[in-house]
């Protein structure tokens, strides 16, 4: 293991970037269910009104589930989850979803959705749902559900509840939500998105055209054995990442005034990031994270081009930045990587993180930040699950 030299910080606390710490982790999410909708299996069909349920070709892989509601019908494809396996857990449901002309029905929840209904021992009904309306091609959807300890019945439903339209589902997984790393919520600082069609028109990701980060997987991802949460454009006014000023984009902010709340003691931080128009030979900071500890002390973590932050369009492993994801668009590469920071003060909670850039170097892009919590709660070592929580409803008997 090679230790990188300590960098300057106000508290001189010997910050080390560890080059090869991406080792297999002992705590992994356990997958409880994986459904590809090639055949019906244990699922039940519920159609009330004019609608239909079918398994049809044209899925993300092979067949998919197609649910059609012609006039505010209830069209649910339902599966009972084993309450023994999900009680007291924060389960995470992921699914590819495609919708066409889905129009909301009489209630705010009358839409296409991923829904979980829970009946408890004292006969309460809890409803959790991620809802969809309109028309959209296949995309990743999530639903996180905190299942109470006294859950007696847990039912997962896919389909349309009294809305009108068509919804397709494929590649469904349910896992127990346990994560090795805690994902930090960057919603408060996100100022950009991943997409830019036209260079130089003043809009879009880096305003440099393709290749952009449109193909980056969204939601919960695990790169090099580190859990991250990549924001989806469906929330937060489409803002999914942070782009700061650099030589080629001086008009962007050099400093984000808001901060990322952390509020926990951490052993390590992981930064998913890359630099555009980067010159790895410069080896000077183009991005800085400033951490404030609960005792008021701060520490600056500079990210140097060619060392801790690699090139977005020529991504390759560096001493302190390991390639996490890459793709090619028309033969041109684009990729992002992980820089890891070992906290010399793991016993002091970190209050927040601020982002800034010198503004005269590469243009830095920050996609996600995760932390290794210093303490793991028994049974729930993962993060407080999501950054973009589901809509939670507590209404009796209505799904
Ligand atoms: Ca399929
Ligand atoms: Ca543009």
Textual characterization of the structure:
The chain is mainly beta and 399 residues long. It has 2 domains: 31-177, Jelly Rolls; 182-373. Helix content is 1%, strand content 46%. The strands form 5 sheets. Strands 1, 3, 4, 6, 9 and 11 form a 6-stranded antiparallel sheet that branches. Strands 2-5-10-7-8-24 form a 6-stranded antiparallel sheet. A hairpin with a 5-residue loop joins β3 and β4 (63-69). It binds calcium ion (2 copies). One calcium ion binds at residues 196, 198-199, 201, 203-204, 207.
- Portion of residues in beta strands equals over 45%
- The end-to-end span amounts to 54 Å
SSE-based structural type: mainly beta
Poorly predicted regions: 1-27, 377-399
Largest sheet: 6 strands, antiparallel
Which hetero ligands occur in this complex? calcium ion
Q: Could you say which overall geometry the principal axes of the C-alpha atoms support?
A: globular
What does the secondary structure layout of this molecule look like, with pairings?
Layout lengths: L30 E5 L8 E5 L2 E7 L5 E7 L4 E8 L1 H4 L3 E14 L8 E9 L4 E8 L1 E13 L4 E11 L2 E12 L6 E2 L35 E5 L2 E5 L11 E2 L16 E5 L1 E11 L8 E9 L4 E7 L17 E8 L2 E11 L7 E7 L6 E11 L17 E3 L6
Antiparallel strand pairs: 1-11, 2-5, 3-4, 4-11, 5-10, 6-9, 6-11, 7-8, 7-10, 8-24, 12-23, 13-14, 15-23, 16-22, 17-21, 17-23, 18-19, 18-22, 20-21
Brief write-up:
The chain is mainly β. The chain has one helix at 83-86, and strands spanning 31-35, 44-48, 51-57, 63-69, 74-81, 90-103, 112-120, 125-132, 134-146, 151-161, 164-175, 182-183, 219-223, 226-230, 242-243, 260-264, 266-276, 285-293, 298-304, 322-329, 332-342, 350-356, 363-373, 391-393. Strand 3 and strand 4 form a beta hairpin.
């Amino acid at each position: 293991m090679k230790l990188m030299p300590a960098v300057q910080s106000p508290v001189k606390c010997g910050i080390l970037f560890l080059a090869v710490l991406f080792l297999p982790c002992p705590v992994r999410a356990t997958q409880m269910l994986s459904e590809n909708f090639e055949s019906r299996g244990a699922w039940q069909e519920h159609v009330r009104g004019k609608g239909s349920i079918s398994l049809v070709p044209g899925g993300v892989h092979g067949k998919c589930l197609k649910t059609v509601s012609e006039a505010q019908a209830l069209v649910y494809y339902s599966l009972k989850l084993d309450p023994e396996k999900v009680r007291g857990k924060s389960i995470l449901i992921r699914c590819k979803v495609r919708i066409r002309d889905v129009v909301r029905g009489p209630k705010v929840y009358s839409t296409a959705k991923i829904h979980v209904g829970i009946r408890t021992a004292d006969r309460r009904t809890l409803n959790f749902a991620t809802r969809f309306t309109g028309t959209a091609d296949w995309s990743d959807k999530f639903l996180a559900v905190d299942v109470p300890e006294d859950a007696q019945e847990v039912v997962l439903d896919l389909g349309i509840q009294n809305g009108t339209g068509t919804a397709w589902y494929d590649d469904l997984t349910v896992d127990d939500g346990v994560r090795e790393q805690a994902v930090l919520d960057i919603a408060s600082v996100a100022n950009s998105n991943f997409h830019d069609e036209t260079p130089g028109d003043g809009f879009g990701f880096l305003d440099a055209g393709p290749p952009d980060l449109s193909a980056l997987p969204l939601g919960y991802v695990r790169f090099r054995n580190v859990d991250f949460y990549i924001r989806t454009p469906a929330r937060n006014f489409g803002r999914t990442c942070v782009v700061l000023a650099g030589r080629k984009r001086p008009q962007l902010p050099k400093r984000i005034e808001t901060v990322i709340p952390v509020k926990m003691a951490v052993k390590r931080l992981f930064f998913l990031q890359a630099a555009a128009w980067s010159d790895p030979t410069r080896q000077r900071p183009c991005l800085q994270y400033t951490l404030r500890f609960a005792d008021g002390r701060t520490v600056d973590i500079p990210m140097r081009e060619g060392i801790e932050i690699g090139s977005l369009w020529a991504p390759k492993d560096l001493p302190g930045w390991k390639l996490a994801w890459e793709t090619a668009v028309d033969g041109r590469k684009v990729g992002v990587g992980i820089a890891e920071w070992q906290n010399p003060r793991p016993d002091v909670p970190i209050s927040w993180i601020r982002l800034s850039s010198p503004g005269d170097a590469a243009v830095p892009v920050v996609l996600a930040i995760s932390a290794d919590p210093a303490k793991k709660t028994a049974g729930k070592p993962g993060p407080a699950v999501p950054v973009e929580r589901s809509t939670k409803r507590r209404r009796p008997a209505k799904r």
